[in-house]
Amino acid sequence: MVRSATEGATFADEDPATGETLAVCALATREDVDAAVAAARAAQPAWAALDPAKRARILHRLARLLEEHADELAETESRDVGKPISEASTRDLPFTIGTWEYYAGWPTKILGTTNPATPGVFTATIREPLGVCAVVTPWNFPLTIASWKIAPALACGNAVVHKPAPEAPLTALRLAELALEAGVPPGVLTVVTGDAGTGAALAEHPDVDALSFTGSTAAGQAIQRAAASSMKRLTLELGGKSANIVLADADMGAALRGAISSTFRNQGEICTAGARLVVERPAAGPLVERLAEHVAGLRLGRGLDPETQMGPLITAGHRRRVLDLFDSATAEGAETVVGGGPADVADYPDGHFVEPTIFTGTHNAMRINREEIFGPAVAVIEVDSAEEAVDVANDTPFGLAAGVFTRDGARAHRIARALRAGTVWINMYGGLDPYSTFSGRGLSGRGYELGPESIGEYTAVKTIKTAVGV
After folding, report:
1. What pTM was computed for the model?
2. Exposed/middle/buried for 384, CB within 10 Å: 0-12, 13-18, 19+?
Protein backbone atom coordinates (compact mmCIF):
# COMPACT_ATOMS: atom_id res chain seq x y z
CA MET A 1 0.00 0.00 0.00
CA VAL A 2 1.29 3.46 -0.89
CA ARG A 3 0.35 6.23 1.51
CA SER A 4 1.05 9.93 1.73
CA ALA A 5 3.08 11.36 4.57
CA THR A 6 0.99 12.27 7.60
CA GLU A 7 1.79 15.96 7.24
CA GLY A 8 1.60 15.87 3.44
CA ALA A 9 5.22 16.90 2.96
CA THR A 10 7.06 15.72 -0.16
CA PHE A 11 10.45 15.93 -1.83
CA ALA A 12 11.52 15.74 -5.45
CA ASP A 13 13.77 13.00 -6.80
CA GLU A 14 15.81 14.41 -9.71
CA ASP A 15 17.82 13.04 -12.61
CA PRO A 16 21.41 14.22 -11.87
CA ALA A 17 22.20 14.55 -15.57
CA THR A 18 19.27 16.74 -16.55
CA GLY A 19 17.72 18.15 -13.39
CA GLU A 20 14.40 16.61 -14.47
CA THR A 21 12.06 15.59 -11.64
CA LEU A 22 11.65 11.84 -11.82
CA ALA A 23 9.23 11.46 -8.93
CA VAL A 24 7.69 13.30 -6.01
CA CYS A 25 7.95 11.19 -2.86
CA ALA A 26 6.40 11.37 0.59
CA LEU A 27 8.61 12.89 3.27
CA ALA A 28 7.89 10.51 6.14
CA THR A 29 7.43 11.94 9.63
CA ARG A 30 7.99 10.24 12.98
CA GLU A 31 4.31 9.35 12.96
CA ASP A 32 4.78 7.61 9.61
CA VAL A 33 7.79 5.76 10.97
CA ASP A 34 5.72 4.70 14.01
CA ALA A 35 3.05 3.29 11.67
CA ALA A 36 5.60 1.40 9.57
CA VAL A 37 7.31 -0.08 12.62
CA ALA A 38 3.95 -1.07 14.15
CA ALA A 39 2.96 -2.84 10.92
CA ALA A 40 6.30 -4.64 10.85
CA ARG A 41 5.94 -5.65 14.50
CA ALA A 42 2.47 -7.05 13.83
CA ALA A 43 3.52 -8.98 10.69
CA GLN A 44 6.83 -10.40 11.88
CA PRO A 45 5.71 -13.29 14.13
CA ALA A 46 3.76 -15.03 11.38
CA TRP A 47 6.64 -14.55 8.91
CA ALA A 48 9.09 -16.01 11.44
CA ALA A 49 6.76 -18.95 12.15
CA LEU A 50 6.33 -19.79 8.46
CA ASP A 51 7.81 -23.12 7.37
CA PRO A 52 11.38 -22.19 6.40
CA ALA A 53 11.01 -24.02 3.09
CA LYS A 54 8.01 -21.85 2.25
CA ARG A 55 9.91 -18.70 3.23
CA ALA A 56 12.71 -19.86 0.94
CA ARG A 57 10.32 -20.38 -1.97
CA ILE A 58 8.96 -16.84 -1.58
CA LEU A 59 12.46 -15.38 -1.65
CA HIS A 60 13.35 -17.50 -4.69
CA ARG A 61 10.23 -16.14 -6.44
CA LEU A 62 11.38 -12.61 -5.64
CA ALA A 63 14.79 -13.37 -7.17
CA ARG A 64 13.04 -14.57 -10.36
CA LEU A 65 10.87 -11.44 -10.47
CA LEU A 66 13.97 -9.26 -10.16
CA GLU A 67 15.49 -11.19 -13.05
CA GLU A 68 12.35 -10.74 -15.16
CA HIS A 69 12.34 -6.99 -14.47
CA ALA A 70 16.12 -6.53 -14.70
CA ASP A 71 16.02 -4.20 -17.72
CA GLU A 72 13.40 -1.98 -16.11
CA LEU A 73 15.31 -1.84 -12.82
CA ALA A 74 18.64 -1.09 -14.51
CA GLU A 75 17.07 1.79 -16.44
CA THR A 76 15.44 3.15 -13.28
CA GLU A 77 18.76 2.97 -11.42
CA SER A 78 20.58 4.71 -14.28
CA ARG A 79 18.04 7.54 -14.36
CA ASP A 80 17.97 7.93 -10.60
CA VAL A 81 21.70 8.09 -9.85
CA GLY A 82 23.31 8.86 -13.22
CA LYS A 83 25.40 5.70 -13.52
CA PRO A 84 26.05 4.27 -16.99
CA ILE A 85 23.34 1.85 -18.06
CA SER A 86 26.05 -0.67 -18.95
CA GLU A 87 27.19 -0.79 -15.32
CA ALA A 88 23.66 -1.01 -13.96
CA SER A 89 22.68 -3.83 -16.31
CA THR A 90 25.86 -5.93 -16.40
CA ARG A 91 27.13 -5.48 -12.83
CA ASP A 92 24.53 -4.14 -10.40
CA LEU A 93 21.52 -6.22 -11.43
CA PRO A 94 23.34 -9.57 -11.68
CA PHE A 95 24.84 -8.94 -8.24
CA THR A 96 21.43 -8.00 -6.85
CA ILE A 97 19.73 -11.08 -8.27
CA GLY A 98 22.58 -13.31 -7.08
CA THR A 99 22.24 -11.89 -3.57
CA TRP A 100 18.57 -12.81 -3.39
CA GLU A 101 19.30 -16.27 -4.81
CA TYR A 102 22.00 -16.84 -2.20
CA TYR A 103 19.95 -15.80 0.81
CA ALA A 104 16.85 -17.58 -0.47
CA GLY A 105 18.75 -20.77 0.31
CA TRP A 106 19.36 -19.84 3.95
CA PRO A 107 15.98 -20.24 5.74
CA THR A 108 16.37 -24.04 5.87
CA LYS A 109 20.01 -23.86 6.98
CA ILE A 110 19.96 -21.59 10.04
CA LEU A 111 21.08 -24.16 12.59
CA GLY A 112 21.72 -24.41 16.32
CA THR A 113 24.03 -26.64 18.33
CA THR A 114 23.97 -29.25 21.09
CA ASN A 115 26.57 -28.54 23.72
CA PRO A 116 28.53 -30.37 26.43
CA ALA A 117 26.91 -29.68 29.78
CA THR A 118 26.56 -30.75 33.38
CA PRO A 119 25.46 -34.40 33.71
CA GLY A 120 21.68 -34.61 33.71
CA VAL A 121 21.26 -31.42 31.66
CA PHE A 122 20.69 -31.28 27.91
CA THR A 123 21.93 -27.99 26.45
CA ALA A 124 21.09 -26.69 22.99
CA THR A 125 21.20 -23.38 21.16
CA ILE A 126 18.86 -22.00 18.54
CA ARG A 127 19.10 -18.93 16.32
CA GLU A 128 16.06 -16.68 16.41
CA PRO A 129 15.16 -13.62 14.31
CA LEU A 130 15.71 -10.30 16.02
CA GLY A 131 12.25 -8.96 15.17
CA VAL A 132 12.01 -5.63 13.34
CA CYS A 133 15.10 -4.51 11.41
CA ALA A 134 15.55 -1.02 10.00
CA VAL A 135 17.62 -0.75 6.83
CA VAL A 136 19.02 2.65 5.78
CA THR A 137 20.74 2.65 2.40
CA PRO A 138 22.87 5.03 0.29
CA TRP A 139 22.43 6.40 -3.21
CA ASN A 140 25.48 5.02 -5.01
CA PHE A 141 24.31 1.38 -5.39
CA PRO A 142 20.72 1.69 -4.18
CA LEU A 143 19.20 -1.66 -5.15
CA THR A 144 22.33 -3.74 -4.69
CA ILE A 145 23.18 -2.54 -1.19
CA ALA A 146 19.53 -2.69 -0.12
CA SER A 147 19.50 -6.34 -1.19
CA TRP A 148 22.65 -7.09 0.84
CA LYS A 149 20.68 -6.11 3.93
CA ILE A 150 17.04 -6.94 3.25
CA ALA A 151 17.58 -10.42 1.79
CA PRO A 152 19.38 -11.90 4.84
CA ALA A 153 17.06 -10.08 7.25
CA LEU A 154 13.99 -11.61 5.60
CA ALA A 155 15.64 -15.01 5.25
CA CYS A 156 16.18 -15.06 9.02
CA GLY A 157 12.50 -14.33 9.69
CA ASN A 158 12.67 -10.62 10.49
CA ALA A 159 10.42 -7.86 9.23
CA VAL A 160 12.15 -4.88 7.59
CA VAL A 161 11.48 -1.14 7.43
CA HIS A 162 13.64 0.28 4.65
CA LYS A 163 14.56 3.92 4.27
CA PRO A 164 16.38 4.54 0.98
CA ALA A 165 18.46 7.65 0.34
CA PRO A 166 16.26 10.57 -0.74
CA GLU A 167 18.46 10.98 -3.83
CA ALA A 168 17.62 7.45 -5.05
CA PRO A 169 14.34 6.00 -3.74
CA LEU A 170 12.82 4.52 -6.88
CA THR A 171 14.19 0.99 -7.02
CA ALA A 172 13.46 0.56 -3.29
CA LEU A 173 9.79 1.25 -3.96
CA ARG A 174 9.78 -1.15 -6.92
CA LEU A 175 11.49 -3.85 -4.86
CA ALA A 176 8.73 -3.60 -2.25
CA GLU A 177 6.09 -4.01 -4.98
CA LEU A 178 7.82 -7.08 -6.38
CA ALA A 179 8.18 -8.54 -2.87
CA LEU A 180 4.41 -8.38 -2.42
CA GLU A 181 3.95 -10.02 -5.82
CA ALA A 182 6.35 -12.79 -4.78
CA GLY A 183 4.28 -13.51 -1.66
CA VAL A 184 6.06 -11.55 1.08
CA PRO A 185 3.16 -10.68 3.43
CA PRO A 186 2.11 -7.03 3.85
CA GLY A 187 4.05 -5.33 6.63
CA VAL A 188 7.06 -7.65 6.38
CA LEU A 189 8.85 -5.24 4.01
CA THR A 190 7.87 -1.59 4.24
CA VAL A 191 9.55 1.39 2.58
CA VAL A 192 9.52 4.83 4.18
CA THR A 193 10.90 7.60 1.99
CA GLY A 194 12.39 10.63 3.65
CA ASP A 195 15.45 12.49 4.79
CA ALA A 196 17.96 12.27 7.64
CA GLY A 197 15.17 12.99 10.12
CA THR A 198 13.35 9.87 8.94
CA GLY A 199 16.50 7.84 9.46
CA ALA A 200 16.98 9.32 12.93
CA ALA A 201 13.43 8.34 13.86
CA LEU A 202 14.24 4.73 12.96
CA ALA A 203 17.55 4.82 14.86
CA GLU A 204 15.84 6.14 17.98
CA HIS A 205 12.73 3.95 17.75
CA PRO A 206 12.38 1.63 20.78
CA ASP A 207 10.53 -1.03 18.75
CA VAL A 208 13.29 -1.37 16.14
CA ASP A 209 15.51 -4.25 17.22
CA ALA A 210 18.37 -3.74 14.76
CA LEU A 211 19.52 -1.22 12.21
CA SER A 212 21.83 -1.74 9.25
CA PHE A 213 23.27 1.39 7.65
CA THR A 214 25.59 2.13 4.76
CA GLY A 215 26.79 5.70 4.30
CA SER A 216 29.23 8.28 5.58
CA THR A 217 31.17 7.88 8.79
CA ALA A 218 29.64 11.06 10.22
CA ALA A 219 26.13 9.76 9.59
CA GLY A 220 27.06 6.38 11.08
CA GLN A 221 28.32 8.08 14.23
CA ALA A 222 25.06 10.04 14.49
CA ILE A 223 23.07 6.81 14.14
CA GLN A 224 25.16 5.16 16.84
CA ARG A 225 24.41 8.02 19.22
CA ALA A 226 20.70 7.98 18.35
CA ALA A 227 20.48 4.21 18.89
CA ALA A 228 22.20 4.27 22.28
CA SER A 229 19.03 4.61 24.35
CA SER A 230 17.48 1.42 22.96
CA MET A 231 20.78 -0.52 22.64
CA LYS A 232 19.63 -1.94 19.30
CA ARG A 233 21.91 -4.12 17.19
CA LEU A 234 23.87 -2.03 14.67
CA THR A 235 25.63 -2.96 11.46
CA LEU A 236 27.52 0.04 10.04
CA GLU A 237 29.31 0.04 6.68
CA LEU A 238 30.86 3.49 6.49
CA GLY A 239 33.43 5.50 4.56
CA GLY A 240 36.80 4.46 3.24
CA LYS A 241 40.14 5.83 2.14
CA SER A 242 41.53 2.74 0.51
CA ALA A 243 45.03 2.30 -0.84
CA ASN A 244 45.81 0.53 -4.09
CA ILE A 245 49.45 -0.61 -3.94
CA VAL A 246 51.38 -1.23 -7.16
CA LEU A 247 54.90 -2.62 -6.74
CA ALA A 248 57.65 -2.37 -9.34
CA ASP A 249 57.37 -6.04 -10.36
CA ALA A 250 53.61 -5.86 -11.00
CA ASP A 251 51.96 -6.81 -14.27
CA MET A 252 51.37 -3.27 -15.57
CA GLY A 253 48.36 -4.32 -17.65
CA ALA A 254 46.65 -5.76 -14.60
CA ALA A 255 47.68 -2.75 -12.48
CA LEU A 256 46.24 -0.38 -15.09
CA ARG A 257 42.93 -2.24 -15.16
CA GLY A 258 42.86 -2.19 -11.37
CA ALA A 259 43.54 1.55 -11.19
CA ILE A 260 40.74 2.23 -13.65
CA SER A 261 38.24 -0.02 -11.87
CA SER A 262 39.19 1.16 -8.41
CA THR A 263 38.44 4.84 -8.94
CA PHE A 264 36.66 5.70 -12.19
CA ARG A 265 33.81 3.18 -12.24
CA ASN A 266 30.45 4.54 -11.08
CA GLN A 267 31.87 8.10 -11.24
CA GLY A 268 34.16 7.21 -8.37
CA GLU A 269 31.12 7.11 -6.07
CA ILE A 270 32.36 3.89 -4.51
CA CYS A 271 33.09 3.39 -0.81
CA THR A 272 35.97 1.00 -1.60
CA ALA A 273 37.58 3.34 -4.17
CA GLY A 274 41.36 2.96 -4.29
CA ALA A 275 41.74 6.71 -4.36
CA ARG A 276 45.27 6.54 -2.95
CA LEU A 277 47.35 4.94 -5.69
CA VAL A 278 50.51 3.96 -3.81
CA VAL A 279 53.16 3.11 -6.42
CA GLU A 280 56.73 1.91 -6.03
CA ARG A 281 58.82 4.62 -7.67
CA PRO A 282 60.15 2.74 -10.77
CA ALA A 283 56.59 1.86 -11.80
CA ALA A 284 55.01 5.27 -11.19
CA GLY A 285 55.88 7.05 -14.45
CA PRO A 286 54.83 4.27 -16.85
CA LEU A 287 51.63 3.51 -14.94
CA VAL A 288 50.53 7.14 -14.67
CA GLU A 289 51.24 7.72 -18.35
CA ARG A 290 49.01 4.83 -19.40
CA LEU A 291 46.33 5.70 -16.85
CA ALA A 292 46.26 9.35 -17.98
CA GLU A 293 45.76 8.31 -21.59
CA HIS A 294 42.73 6.22 -20.61
CA VAL A 295 41.22 8.75 -18.21
CA ALA A 296 41.54 11.64 -20.68
CA GLY A 297 39.49 9.65 -23.18
CA LEU A 298 36.55 8.79 -20.93
CA ARG A 299 33.22 9.78 -22.46
CA LEU A 300 30.93 11.69 -20.09
CA GLY A 301 27.17 11.80 -20.50
CA ARG A 302 23.79 10.74 -19.24
CA GLY A 303 23.72 7.23 -17.87
CA LEU A 304 21.04 6.07 -20.30
CA ASP A 305 23.28 6.82 -23.28
CA PRO A 306 24.90 3.47 -24.15
CA GLU A 307 28.10 5.30 -25.17
CA THR A 308 28.51 6.93 -21.75
CA GLN A 309 31.47 5.70 -19.72
CA MET A 310 31.05 8.07 -16.78
CA GLY A 311 27.93 9.85 -15.61
CA PRO A 312 27.30 12.89 -13.40
CA LEU A 313 27.74 13.08 -9.65
CA ILE A 314 24.58 12.65 -7.65
CA THR A 315 23.83 16.29 -6.66
CA ALA A 316 25.09 19.82 -7.16
CA GLY A 317 26.13 19.92 -3.49
CA HIS A 318 28.19 16.77 -3.81
CA ARG A 319 29.82 18.15 -6.96
CA ARG A 320 30.85 21.30 -5.06
CA ARG A 321 32.40 19.21 -2.30
CA VAL A 322 34.42 17.12 -4.79
CA LEU A 323 35.64 20.23 -6.59
CA ASP A 324 36.62 21.77 -3.26
CA LEU A 325 38.79 18.71 -2.57
CA PHE A 326 40.35 19.08 -6.02
CA ASP A 327 41.19 22.72 -5.23
CA SER A 328 42.70 21.72 -1.89
CA ALA A 329 45.03 19.26 -3.63
CA THR A 330 46.46 21.87 -5.98
CA ALA A 331 46.70 24.41 -3.16
CA GLU A 332 48.78 21.90 -1.17
CA GLY A 333 51.18 21.29 -4.04
CA ALA A 334 49.78 18.36 -6.02
CA GLU A 335 50.24 18.34 -9.79
CA THR A 336 47.14 17.85 -11.93
CA VAL A 337 47.94 15.41 -14.73
CA VAL A 338 44.39 15.10 -16.11
CA GLY A 339 41.18 16.92 -15.26
CA GLY A 340 40.89 18.76 -11.98
CA GLY A 341 37.73 20.80 -12.53
CA PRO A 342 34.09 20.87 -13.56
CA ALA A 343 33.12 19.25 -16.85
CA ASP A 344 30.82 20.80 -19.40
CA VAL A 345 28.80 18.19 -21.30
CA ALA A 346 27.09 19.95 -24.19
CA ASP A 347 23.91 17.89 -24.28
CA TYR A 348 23.42 18.12 -20.51
CA PRO A 349 24.21 21.65 -19.33
CA ASP A 350 22.38 21.10 -16.03
CA GLY A 351 24.23 17.90 -15.16
CA HIS A 352 26.54 17.57 -12.15
CA PHE A 353 29.64 16.54 -14.10
CA VAL A 354 33.27 16.75 -13.05
CA GLU A 355 36.38 15.86 -14.99
CA PRO A 356 37.96 12.51 -14.21
CA THR A 357 41.17 13.53 -12.49
CA ILE A 358 44.69 12.30 -11.68
CA PHE A 359 46.93 14.05 -9.16
CA THR A 360 50.63 13.28 -8.74
CA GLY A 361 53.19 14.55 -6.23
CA THR A 362 50.84 13.88 -3.33
CA HIS A 363 51.53 12.63 0.18
CA ASN A 364 49.43 11.27 3.00
CA ALA A 365 49.17 14.54 4.92
CA MET A 366 47.21 16.22 2.11
CA ARG A 367 43.48 16.63 2.57
CA ILE A 368 42.82 14.75 -0.70
CA ASN A 369 44.45 11.71 0.95
CA ARG A 370 42.75 12.05 4.32
CA GLU A 371 39.11 12.54 3.28
CA GLU A 372 36.92 10.32 1.18
CA ILE A 373 36.59 11.90 -2.29
CA PHE A 374 33.62 9.88 -3.56
CA GLY A 375 34.30 11.19 -7.03
CA PRO A 376 36.37 10.26 -10.10
CA ALA A 377 39.86 11.11 -8.89
CA VAL A 378 43.02 9.33 -7.84
CA ALA A 379 46.02 10.73 -5.95
CA VAL A 380 49.35 9.07 -6.71
CA ILE A 381 51.76 8.57 -3.81
CA GLU A 382 55.25 7.34 -4.73
CA VAL A 383 57.16 5.09 -2.32
CA ASP A 384 60.56 3.40 -2.28
CA SER A 385 59.66 -0.05 -0.97
CA ALA A 386 56.87 -2.49 -0.21
CA GLU A 387 57.34 -1.80 3.51
CA GLU A 388 56.83 1.93 2.96
CA ALA A 389 53.78 1.17 0.83
CA VAL A 390 52.18 -0.76 3.71
CA ASP A 391 52.99 2.05 6.16
CA VAL A 392 51.36 4.60 3.84
CA ALA A 393 48.33 2.38 3.23
CA ASN A 394 47.75 1.88 6.96
CA ASP A 395 48.18 5.57 7.79
CA THR A 396 44.45 6.28 7.87
CA PRO A 397 41.66 5.93 10.44
CA PHE A 398 39.63 4.03 7.83
CA GLY A 399 39.93 0.32 7.08
CA LEU A 400 37.48 -0.76 4.41
CA ALA A 401 39.52 -2.18 1.53
CA ALA A 402 42.92 -2.25 -0.17
CA GLY A 403 44.66 -3.74 -3.17
CA VAL A 404 48.16 -4.97 -3.99
CA PHE A 405 49.72 -5.73 -7.37
CA THR A 406 52.91 -7.81 -7.52
CA ARG A 407 54.06 -10.94 -9.32
CA ASP A 408 55.53 -12.30 -6.07
CA GLY A 409 52.73 -14.39 -4.56
CA ALA A 410 54.35 -14.86 -1.17
CA ARG A 411 55.02 -11.14 -0.81
CA ALA A 412 51.44 -10.36 -1.92
CA HIS A 413 50.03 -12.47 0.90
CA ARG A 414 52.42 -11.02 3.47
CA ILE A 415 51.27 -7.54 2.48
CA ALA A 416 47.60 -8.56 2.49
CA ARG A 417 47.96 -9.76 6.08
CA ALA A 418 49.73 -6.55 7.09
CA LEU A 419 47.07 -4.24 5.64
CA ARG A 420 44.41 -3.04 8.10
CA ALA A 421 41.36 -3.50 5.90
CA GLY A 422 38.28 -5.72 5.79
CA THR A 423 38.85 -6.71 2.15
CA VAL A 424 42.15 -6.98 0.26
CA TRP A 425 42.37 -7.71 -3.47
CA ILE A 426 45.55 -9.20 -4.94
CA ASN A 427 46.33 -8.47 -8.62
CA MET A 428 42.80 -7.13 -9.07
CA TYR A 429 40.82 -4.28 -7.56
CA GLY A 430 37.12 -4.36 -6.78
CA GLY A 431 34.65 -7.15 -7.00
CA LEU A 432 32.40 -8.43 -4.23
CA ASP A 433 30.06 -11.40 -4.33
CA PRO A 434 27.12 -12.63 -2.23
CA TYR A 435 29.11 -15.51 -0.75
CA SER A 436 32.09 -13.61 0.71
CA THR A 437 31.93 -11.36 3.75
CA PHE A 438 32.43 -7.61 3.43
CA SER A 439 33.31 -5.51 6.47
CA GLY A 440 35.21 -2.48 7.70
CA ARG A 441 37.66 -1.62 10.45
CA GLY A 442 38.07 1.63 12.38
CA LEU A 443 36.05 4.52 10.95
CA SER A 444 34.88 2.24 8.16
CA GLY A 445 32.36 0.65 10.48
CA ARG A 446 31.52 -2.60 12.18
CA GLY A 447 29.57 -5.76 11.51
CA TYR A 448 29.35 -7.93 8.41
CA GLU A 449 27.60 -7.74 5.06
CA LEU A 450 27.23 -10.62 2.61
CA GLY A 451 28.33 -14.21 3.07
CA PRO A 452 27.34 -16.51 5.93
CA GLU A 453 28.57 -14.09 8.60
CA SER A 454 25.70 -11.71 7.85
CA ILE A 455 23.23 -14.32 9.16
CA GLY A 456 24.65 -13.58 12.60
CA GLU A 457 23.81 -9.89 12.16
CA TYR A 458 20.09 -10.69 11.85
CA THR A 459 19.70 -13.45 14.44
CA ALA A 460 20.17 -13.89 18.17
CA VAL A 461 21.44 -17.05 19.83
CA LYS A 462 19.27 -18.51 22.61
CA THR A 463 20.53 -21.24 24.94
CA ILE A 464 17.97 -23.77 26.24
CA LYS A 465 18.83 -26.12 29.13
CA THR A 466 16.66 -29.11 29.96
CA ALA A 467 16.91 -31.35 33.02
CA VAL A 468 16.92 -34.96 31.82
CA GLY A 469 17.96 -36.78 34.99
CA VAL A 470 21.12 -38.76 35.62
Report:
1. 0.96
2. exposed
Which residues, at least 6 apart from 180, have a Cβ–Cβ distance to it below 8 Å? Answer: 186, 189
Domain with residue 417: its CATH number is 3.40.309.10
Looking at the fold, whether 168 and 214 belong to one and the same domain comes out as yes
Question: Is residue 214 one of the residues assigned to a domain?
Answer: yes
Q: What is the pLDDT of residues 327-363, one digit of tens each?
A: 999 999 999 999 999 999 999 999 999 999 999 999 9
The catalytic site residues sit at 237, 271
- pLDDT tens-digit series, residues 93-108: 999 999 999 999 999 9
Q: Which of 376, 144, 129 is nearest to 233 (CA)?
A: 129
Instruction: Using CA atoms of 73, 78, 80, 83 in order, give the dihedral in degrees to the nearest 10.
Output: 140
C-beta of residue 461 within 8 angstroms of C-beta of residue 259: no
Domain shared by 117 and 84, yes or no:
yes
* Domain assignment of residue 344, given as a range: 243-433
Count of domains in the chain? 2
Taking the C-alpha atoms of residue 86 and residue 353, their distance in angstroms, rounded to an integer, is 18
List phi, psi (to 5°) of 248: -65, -25
Q: How many beta carbons lie within 10 A of that of residue 207, not counting itself? A: 14
Are residues 239 and 216 in contact, defined by beta-carbon separation less than 8 angstroms?
yes
- Terminal C-alpha separation, the chain: 57
- Alpha-carbon span 247 to 412, nearest angstrom: 10
- Do 251 and 363 belong together in one domain? yes
Q: Is 133 exposed, middle or buried (0-12, 13-18, 19+ CB in 10 A)?
A: buried
Based on the fold, state whether residues 332 and 379 are members of the same structural domain: yes
Task: Tell me, yes or no, whether 23 and 59 share the same domain.
Answer: yes
